[in-house]
Design goal:
The complex is a heterodimer of chains A (484) and B (569).
Chain A (H helix, E strand, L loop, with lengths): L42 E6 L21 E2 L19 E8 L13 H9 L27 H9 L8 E5 L30 H8 L7 H26 L4 H20 L28 H17 L5 E6 L25 H8 L4 H22 L13 E6 L15 E4 L10 E10 H11 L11 E3 L5 E3 L14
Chain B lengths: L2 H14 L17 H4 L20 E2 L2 H12 L29 H18 L3 H5 L3 H4 L1 H16 L6 H17 L2 H12 L3 H4 E2 L6 E8 L5 E8 L2 H12 L6 H9 L5 H12 L4 H12 L20 H21 L2 H6 L2 E4 L1 H7 L10 E4 L12 H6 L8 H12 L25 H12 L1 H15 L13 E2 L2 E2 L3 E4 L7 E4 L1 H8 L3 H16 L8 H13 L4 H8 L3 H4 E5 L4
Antiparallel strand pairs in B: 1-2, 3-4, 4-11, 5-6, 7-8, 9-10
The chains are: A alpha/beta (484), B mainly alpha (569).
Chain lengths: 484, 569
């Protein structure tokens, strides 16, 4: 278990050991969404659950096959989406998106879960680094492009102290103990996976890293850090001129991260007090204990809500477990409240039972319940213009493969919750006239978030037969309020 | 060649032919590399011109960072324990191509630098080795910056670097105070790429050619000698997982490391130091990954004995055994030694006599049952399912980690493996063999050999205990191995096989490859053929001697030279 230590920077204790929250400069108070004047910012949340879908209601690959196209108002959602029923006026389901890239089959190389994980948000053909791993049979693939959440964060993240935050619920606890392409969906660039923070207390400390110092102390500490980081950036720039191409790229990625850290020092800091959060935070269990999975996840969702509502960040991801998850969901119960025995690990269930396992179905229902809980929390927060935080958010529910049983990438689950400030035609099920590559979904997410570009990721893809197709520019049709 | 051997060759052959730069398991490059290999002299290893594949710059791993700040500043807090975990590449956490930098890591580097610099400046006179009150603040810093810098950057600073650090110090002293200025100077050095990375620039140019890069552009390929100070770091991080000590710095300064003999002398000195145990331990724990059992799930009704206490004891057994086996540096002991370490609780768990207290003691095992690390519970329980053994996973481990044979990924539509409850009258082995019979040749090509190796371990149940029966019938752990060259033949159980394996070329050559990957922080490439050949010869001469293998790692082209691709002029 990774120990967690609060640094002196993040916590001051009074004489009696009581946490002391010190006031911050008015000018440094966080830009709080519900107090801000002017337009309400948009937020993006990538909500990931592992091992594909399990559409037992229809037996059709993908999540929403069988659900009629059109308004969702009077529609019955597929069994495993039923928890979202109360929010279906703010839900947009798209059928017919294929998660292909320029080398979809990878010549049979690479584990399909890791391919899906690495390509879903990057839209770029993945590869593995350093040759076969010890599990030579299953080399994990690594993303080879920036992921769409990070691309959006680069465009909208300049006004918040955190460009983006990655929340992970046991996201790096693979069975082999190895951390690789199975665990990562966000990428800062080619081969630059972003780790997620699995310890809620650690995340709490990161969210409020600056928040407990006095005004003068904070200003001085930041000025000192800035002068050191300026020196460090100069060091990196000088060294880049002396090394070969490969090392230059590595140094440049490091330099970019230092530069972003330096920039964040001019952003208003957040404090638990200014964000209406409790000053102290304790984990509800060991973040790595499988039995604590639901409780830790709940805490992450609460922190995620605080980060968005307090405008600490506008882009976040929440990753439950990892691609090819081996978690045993021991806490499930059926509709009548009867416990469902955990007979096997998640991944094995998708292989062994196809679409017929009540346990597998219950797992997917459980993740839908978590999504509904998170979205419900966001919907309960009123913004300055009377809309809710969910109305201004885009919560994208994704997974690594389409149907878990076949591990295909055809007709992937596309569930978008929230309207992104009216940018999405919510409350309906869009069935595409013809299958569209997921690069266009990524463009759709960008456009909805106000990033006016018409391409993302690979410009062509191959289908399962190896035939190559060009990818059109622009978003998916029929999804954006203003668009094709 | 028997049909099964042919099928297995086809299985791994189809995989190797598409797996890029991988060098095959039997010493020959698996992919065409004539372009690269013939750059210098048109032959493969026949000339004296050194060849080495490009070696990417390596960032300190978390363990290396902790030990380096310990040696540099006397830090005992191990700040890197809370850094993001390394990604794995080619099976090791120090693979430079798998390393990447996230905002989270940069933030952690900063936090650690702040904390370390704060602690270091609590006793200024000690840090500066100079009294600023009597000798003068600036005088002390004039000495401190080049002296501390040379240890932090692991080489003497150049004039420009000293000037820039002086400028930071002077500006900070103007804005704040002396102590703060020293602190910020240290803080800056601890975040510099020259501290965080093992930077290798410069060095005598040996050959210069051109090649096409990934985008098809022509770039210069320059082979250079690694400088003395860079070699000192290569030695210290290989053998000690930390920065060079004073003697190694002195050897770099005096030119002692300019000859292979000088490098070997230092390597042998360092191997005699207990610090070399760390590198062995790190290597072995990653190569022979026998994971933590903290969160291993077992069906509590089938295996009530697998308690949290037992998991802790199994981990301790593994630890003590590895440490003991390492004292001899002998691979055969590690993988086939007929002894272990247990206390009374663990001994009765295994059903072994001997220990009568909570203290762990050495226990001699029945050689028909005990043969090194892979017959211990820590391995066996890690490679098992909640309700039964996992012969495929165990066999796959032997194939990939001990024989360096990579098998292709299974197709997505693999058939369901029947559970014990589905076929209660069949043993695990029988159930798997049934699947092979019915699933046909596509599975059998890879799985027959892989699963046979796993069946060797069928006498050990899902929590690592010896068993005579599975599904109420005698366990069958005999196999006829086919398709693995000199290892082909009849074996009766894991110990029988492990004793043959430890003297086989397959294992010794595989150990060479694994040490290469760990020692050099990258996967081998066809350009490293000379280096691999040299190492394999040493491994053959000193079978199973890990010490000699590590010394040999310091005597290769890949160690003494480096290739810059697209280097600055």
């Amino acid at each position: 278990v990774k120990p967690f230590r609060l640094s002196r920077r993040t916590m001051l204790r009074g004489a009696g050991g009581v946490f002391v929250a010190l006031p911050v400069l008015e000018a440094m108070a966080p830009r709080r969404a519900n107090a801000a004047v002017g337009s309400v910012p948009k937020r993006l949340v990538i909500f990931y659950s592992p091992n594909g879908t399990n559409d037992q209601a229809t037996g059709v690959e993908g999540f929403s096959g069988g659900l009629p196209a059109g308004p969702l108002t009077n529609a019955t959602l597929p069994t495993e989406a039923a928890p979202l029923d109360a929010l279906k006026h703010k839900l947009l389901i798209v059928s017919g998106v294929n998660a292909f890239t320029s080398a979809s089959t990878h010549d049979g190389q690479g584990d399909l879960h890791s391919i899906g994980m690495s390509e879903l948000l990057t839209g770029v053909k993945s590869t593995y680094v350093g040759g076969p791993t010890f599990e030579g049979a299953l080399p994990p693939m690594v993303g080879q492009g920036i992921s769409v959440d990070q691309h959006i964060a680069n465009a909208v993240g300049d006004e918040t102290v955190r460009r983006s935050l990655q929340y992970g619920v046991q996201s790096e606890v693979t069975a082999s103990g190895e951390i690789d392409g199975f665990c990562r969906m966000s990428y800062g660039g080619p081969g630059q996976p972003l780790p997620s923070t699995m310890d809620p207390a650690e995340m709490f400390a990161r969210m409020f890293a600056d928040g407990d110092q006095g005004d003068a102390a904070l200003a001085a500490a930041r000025a000192q850090r800035r002068s050191v980081l300026d020196f460090v950036m100069d060091d990196f720039e000088r060294l880049e001129g002396e090394v070969g191409l490969r090392d230059r790229r590595a140094l440049d990625a490091h330099l970019t991260a230092v530069r972003e850290l330096e920039l964040s020092l001019s952003m208003p800091p957040a404090t638990p007090e200014s964000c209406d959060a409790d000053a102290m935070f304790e984990n509800d269990g060991d973040p790595l204990d499988p039995a604590a999975f639901p409780a830790i996840g709940k805490q992450h969702m609460e922190l995620l809500r605080i980060a968005l509502s307090c405008d600490i960040t506008r882009v976040a991801s929440l990753q439950w477990s990892f691609a090819r998850s081996t978690l045993r969901h021991t806490w499930l119960s059926d509709a009548n409240g009867n416990a469902i025995p955990a007979t096997n690990i998640h991944h094995q269930l998708t292989h062994d039972f196809g679409s017929s396992s009540p346990e597998l179905s219950a797992i997917n229902v459980w993740y839908a319940e978590q999504l509904a809980a998170l979205a419900g929390q966001l919907d309960a927060i009123e913004e300055v213009d009377g809309t809710t935080l969910l109305d201004n958010s885009l919560v994208c529910w994704c997974t690594d493969v389409a149907w878990g049983y076949t591990h295909s990438f055809e007709n992937i689950r596309v569930f978008l919750l929230g309207g992104a400030g009216g940018a999405l035609k919510t409350g309906q099920h869009v069935v595409l006239a013809q299958p569209e590559p997921h690069q266009k979904l990524l463009v759709t997410l960008m456009n909805a978030m106000g990033v006016a570009e018409d391409r993302f990721g690979d410009t062509s893809y191959t289908d399962t037969d190896g035939a190559m197709f060009e990818i059109d520019a622009g978003p998916l049709p029929g999804v954006l309020s203003e668009g094709p | 060649m028997a049909a099964r051997a042919r099928a297995f060759r086809a299985c791994i052959g189809s995989w190797l032919s598409i797996s890029g730069c991988y060098v095959g398991a039997h010493g020959s490059p698996a992919t065409a590399s004539e372009d690269a290999g013939s750059d210098s002299d048109g032959s493969d290893g026949g000339s004296d011109a050194p060849t080495a594949a490009p070696s990417p710059m390596r960032r300190l791993t978390r363990g290396e960072y902790n030990r380096t700040v310990h040696d540099l500043l006397g830090d005992a807090t191990a700040p890197a324990d809370t850094f993001p975990a390394e990604d794995i590449g080619s099976g090791f956490t120090n693979n430079a191509n798998a390393q990447s930098v996230s905002g989270l890591l940069v933030e952690d580097y900063e936090g650690a630098a702040i904390a370390l610099a704060e602690a270091a400046t609590e006793d200024l006179a000690a840090l500066l080795a100079c009294d600023p009150i009597t000798e003068g603040e600036d005088t002390c810093m004039d000495g401190f910056i080049p002296a501390f810098g040379a240890r932090a950057y692991r080489r003497p600073l150049v004039a420009d670097e000293i000037d820039r650090l002086q400028a930071l110090y002077q500006a900070s002293k103007t804005d704040y105070d002396f102590t703060t200025a020293v602190r910020l100077t240290v803080q800056a050095m601890l975040q510099s790429p020259h501290f965080l990375y093992r930077v290798e620039t410069g060095g005598e140019e040996v050959t210069r050619t051109t090649a096409a890069d990934a985008d098809g552009k022509t770039v210069d390929v320059v082979i250079r000698r690694v400088t003395g100070y860079q070699l000192a770091s290569r030695l210290s991080y290989l053998l000690w997982s930390t920065m060079p000590d004073d003697e190694l710095f002195a050897a770099a300064a005096s030119g002692e490391l300019d000859t292979p003999e000088g490098v070997e002398a230092q390597a042998r000195r360092m191997l005699d130091d207990t610090r070399s145990q760390r590198a062995f331990l790190t290597f072995l724990s990653e190569w022979l990954y026998v994971g933590e059992l903290d969160h291993t799930v077992r069906d509590p009704e089938l295996f009530p004995e697998f308690t949290p206490e037992i998991r802790t004891l199994l981990a301790k057994e593994r630890e003590l055994f590895i440490a003991d086996a390492l004292s001899t540096g002998d691979l055969a002991t590690l993988l086939a030694g007929d002894y272990s370490f247990m206390n009374q609780t663990l001994a009765s768990y295994y059903g072994v006599g001997g220990p009568s207290s909570d203290e762990f003691e050495r226990v001699t095992l029945d050689p028909q049952r005990g043969a090194g690390l892979l017959t211990q519970g820590a391995f066996l329980a890690n490679y098992a399912k909640p309700n039964q053994t996992a012969p495929i996973a165990r066999g796959q481990f032997v194939l990939s980690r001990l024989a360096c044979i990579a098998t292709p990924p299974p197709p997505p539509d693999i058939p369901a493996l029947p559970e014990p409850a589905d076929q209660p009258s069949l043993s695990t082995r029988e159930r798997l063999e049934m699947v092979h019979l019915t699933a046909g040749a596509s599975c059998a090509a890879c799985h027959e050999t892989m699963d046979e190796l796993g069946f060797l371990f069928e006498h050990y149940d899902a929590i690592g205990r010896w068993r005579e029966e599975d599904a109420n019938k005698p366990v069958d752990s005999t196999i006829e191995l086919d398709g693995m060259d000199e290892l082909d033949g009849h074996y009766d159980g894991a110990p029988d096989f492990m004793r043959a394996l430890v003297t086989s070329r397959q294992l010794l050559d595989c150990a060479v490859r694994q040490w290469f990957r760990f020692g050099y922080g990258r996967i081998e490439s066809p350009l490293d053929l000379d280096t691999i050949t040299t190492l394999e010869a040493v491994a053959a001469e000193h079978p199973g001697d890990l010490r000699e293998l590590v010394v040999a790692l310091t005597q290769t082209d890949a160690f003494a030279y480096r290739t810059d691709e697209g280097a600055a002029q």
